[in-house]
Amino acid sequence: MKVIAVFATTVNGTIALSADDRVDWTSREDKIYFKELTMKIGTVIMGRKTHEAIGRPLPERLNIVWTRNPDAYRKTERENLRFLSSDPVSLLEQLKKEGISQVCLIGGAETFAAFASKSLVDELHLTYEPILCSGSMNLGSYLSGCLGLKLIELVRLRKATVMIYEVEK
Length: 169
Ligand SMILES: NC(=O)c1ccc[n+]([C@@H]2O[C@H](COP(=O)([O-])OP(=O)(O)OC[C@H]3O[C@@H](n4cnc5c(N)ncnc54)[C@H](OP(=O)(O)O)[C@@H]3O)[C@@H](O)[C@H]2O)c1
Known about the structure:
This protein is an alpha/beta fold and 169 residues long. It has a single domain, classed as Dihydrofolate Reductase, subunit A (3-Layer(aba) Sandwich). 23% of the residues lie in helices and 29% in strands. It has an 8-stranded mixed beta sheet. Helix 2 links the parallel strand 2 and strand 3. NADP nicotinamide-adenine-dinucleotide phosphate binds at residues 7-8, 15-16, 19-21, 23, 46-50, 53, 66-69, 85, 106-111, 114, 137.
């Protein structure tokens, strides 16, 4: 199973400007990049808080929302929206059994750390938006220790830059 993490950051490393940030500070080009990548991969995994910040399932993609309390959300489930509570390894195994071989992990920091700390994240596509903002959440907020990255590609958008990293395991 290939796991591709996809995030946007301000130049000073902030990924959420507030607790319920809808990440509307990213550029149009990054939104297109995000949409094209996640549509190509077909499945997105996100934490419950990110799902609530987005406010709806992403269309034409299978949305897997990670929560400790999936039963509370059963009524809102639909064909492309599922709530799962399994640990990261079991969750990916379950999806693999369903024939899924690649997923995008689209946030937030807590969910990223849980998967990365089990060495389950293969790639990180990190868009640097050329802005400086307040906000204390960053991609390492929930990590214990450090994660090694190797830059494998750089994609220049009109204003922003996407750094594609391989995650060292
Ligand atoms: N800049 C970007 O690219 C970007 C991307 C994504 C998100 N964000 C922002 O990041 C913020 C949210 O990030 P976050 O780190 O606070 O939260 P998050 O990772 O989106 O979601 C955290 C939730 O994941 C669930 N979870 C955590 N551990 C679990 C476990 N062991 N088993 C099952 N479920 C588990 C819990 O849901 P329950 O509480 O329901 O149990 C937890 O509250 C939002 O403001 C969002 O806009 C930014």
